[in-house]
Write a structure and sequence with these properties.
single chain, 3 helices
C-alpha cells in the first residue's frame, strides 16, 4: 500500500486548535484607539467572538451582542 501526499491541508482557526482571541482582541483594541475610544481588552472581546468579523466589530462599537452601530461608525 502506497500513501500519497495530500494536495491541500485546511486548518480552521476558530478556536478549536488555536486560541485566536488574543489576536482578535489586539485588533479590536487598536481599532478602538484609532477611533478615539477606550480599548476593551481580551476578556470582553472573548465574550463577543462568534458570528464573524462584521458582528465582532459591531459588538465592539456598541458593547452589545446584537445591536447595530450607527452606519457612519461601522
Amino acid at each position: 500500500m502506497r500513501l500519497s501526499k495530500p494536495k491541500l491541508v485546511l486548518i480552521d482557526l476558530d478556536g478549536t486548535l488555536v486560541d485566536s482571541v488574543p489576536d482578535l482582541a489586539y485588533c479590536i483594541d487598536e481599532m478602538m484607539k484609532v477611533l478615539g475610544r477606550e480599548p476593551w481588552g481580551e476578556e470582553k472581546v472573548r465574550g463577543w467572538v462568534g458570528n464573524g468579523v462584521d458582528r465582532l466589530v459591531m459588538r465592539a462599537l456598541t458593547d452589545t451582542l446584537w445591536e447595530d452601530p450607527e452606519s457612519a461608525d461601522f
